[in-house]
């Protein structure tokens, strides 16, 4: 299996790296402190075509693939995870369900603006009473003539309340199966629909420049045609989306882990203690060497999972492995980078402080570390 990038892939990586360094880095610290969504940065990302990377040109996309998206996510997350998760959620959770399961009419209506980055979309799966147990959906949608009437609430939904959010796709119980189990379907709810309320933004530990809200639906009425995919297949569809998304989160995690290496190497060459640059001390050298080891190995894991996905092979377990190892590597690297920076690592003016705050959610979002271990164990027949 070839892990070297093609010329086109390498050029994309360098382009996004330059963008992250020259455009994102100078402004994101202030946005983070103010907990402000970086609209100008997102607009530039749209102009670069990043939101359209894995989609066909006929829907306004760039005609690339999912691995191209992952390369972009890694480079963005080397500098800032709020920007990276805005892209990841906008593509993997917002646009991808429409592309994978939507009707041709839905694709042509909604995808072009999403691919150009002129609009964002979210996916409402998690609810206040359930995280990993996402199948225990309480939100209901009932047919009333030619409409779905939705009642319920969703939690921790990314890209759900920005000025450019076009819609949120939500899972809801639409009936009961013959065996009594709930029938869960996915339904597209445009922003501004009567009965659809976006709650105040959360006060978060990290990802402070990204958009996250609780959503409520009270007799929210949308057309029957807003059903996304087959009725009763909403949960199964989203499990497919999550498998793909875990590769993307792994790539984002690798970016954060690598960013910690970059910042630590730079600081180790600048900071002096006891008459020497701290990078001259073996204790610091070994910490950074181990950080590089984790980032490199995690990168190989997500490269492998992405290659299997694009080859049409089963990749569920490899995606779980990549997400688990990369996210835990990001947390460890962030902790070590903060330690290397000492007191300055606790100051928000240094990027590693942001990385330390951003890292933990990577072990939780889009499937906890425990869920990944469960998936891996099941693949082993346990």
TrEMBL record:
Domain Acyl-CoA dehydrogenase/oxidase N-terminal: 6-118
GO molecular function, one term: flavin adenine dinucleotide binding
Domain Acyl-CoA dehydrogenase/oxidase C-terminal intervals: 232-380
Taxonomy, superkingdom: Bacteria
Name of one Pfam family that matches: Acyl-CoA_dh_N
Cofactor(s) required for function per UniProt: FAD
Coiled-coil features, chain-numbered ranges: none
Keyword terms, alphabetized: FAD, Flavoprotein, Oxidoreductase
Domain Acyl-CoA oxidase/dehydrogenase middle residues, every copy: 123-220
Family: Belongs to the acyl-CoA dehydrogenase family.
PANTHER family in UniProt: ACYL-COA DEHYDROGENASE, ISOVALERYL-COA DEHYDROGENASE, MITOCHONDRIAL-RELATED
Name recorded for this polypeptide: Acyl-CoA dehydrogenase
Organism: Actinocatenispora sera
Lineage: Bacteria, Bacillati, Actinomycetota, Actinomycetes, Micromonosporales
């Amino acid at each position: 299996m070839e892990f070297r990038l093609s010329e086109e892939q390498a050029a994309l990586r360098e382009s996004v790296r330059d963008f992250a360094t020259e455009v994102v880095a100078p402004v994101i610290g202030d946005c983070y402190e103010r907990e402000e969504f970086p609209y100008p940065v997102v607009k530039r990302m749209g102009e670069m075509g990043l939101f359209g990377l894995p989609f066909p040109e006929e829907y306004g996309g760039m005609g690339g693939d999912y691995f191209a998206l992952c390369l972009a996510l890694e480079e963005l997350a080397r500098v800032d995870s709020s920007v990276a998760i805005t892209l990841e959620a906008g593509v993997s959770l917002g646009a991808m369900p429409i592309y994978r399961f939507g009707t041709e009419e839905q694709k042509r209506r909604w995808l072009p603006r999403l691919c150009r980055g002129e609009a964002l979309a979210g996916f409402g799966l998690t609810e206040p009473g359930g995280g990993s147990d996402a199948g225990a959906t309480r939100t209901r949608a009932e047919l009333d003539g030619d409409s779905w009437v939705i009642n319920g609430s969703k939690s921790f939904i990314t890209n759900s309340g920005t000025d450019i959010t076009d819609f949120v796709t939500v899972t809801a119980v639409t009936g009961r199966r013959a065996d009594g189990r709930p029938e869960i379907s996915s339904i597209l709810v445009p922003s501004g629909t009567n009965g659809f309320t976006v709650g105040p933004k959360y006060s978060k530990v990290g990802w402070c420049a990204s958009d996250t809200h609780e959503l409520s639906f009270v007799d929210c009425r949308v057309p029957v045609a807003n059903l996304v995919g087959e009725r009763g297949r909403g949960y199964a569809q989203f499990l497919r989306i999550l498998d793909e998304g875990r590769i993307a989160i792994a790539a984002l995690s690798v970016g954060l882990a690598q960013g910690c290496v970059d910042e630590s190497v730079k600081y180790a060459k600048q900071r002096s203690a006891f008459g020497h640059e701290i990078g001259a001390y073996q204790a610091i050298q070994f910490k950074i060497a181990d950080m590089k080891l984790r980032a490199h190995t995690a990168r190989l894991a997500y490269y492998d999972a992405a290659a299997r996905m694009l080859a049409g092979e089963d990749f569920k377990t490899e995606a779980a492995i990549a997400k688990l190892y990369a996210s835990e590597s990001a947390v460890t690297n962030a902790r070590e980078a903060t330690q290397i920076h000492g007191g300055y690592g606790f100051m928000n003016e240094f990027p590693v402080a942001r990385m330390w705050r951003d890292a933990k959610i990577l072990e939780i979002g889009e499937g906890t570390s425990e869920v990944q271990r469960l998936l891996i164990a099941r693949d082993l027949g346990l």
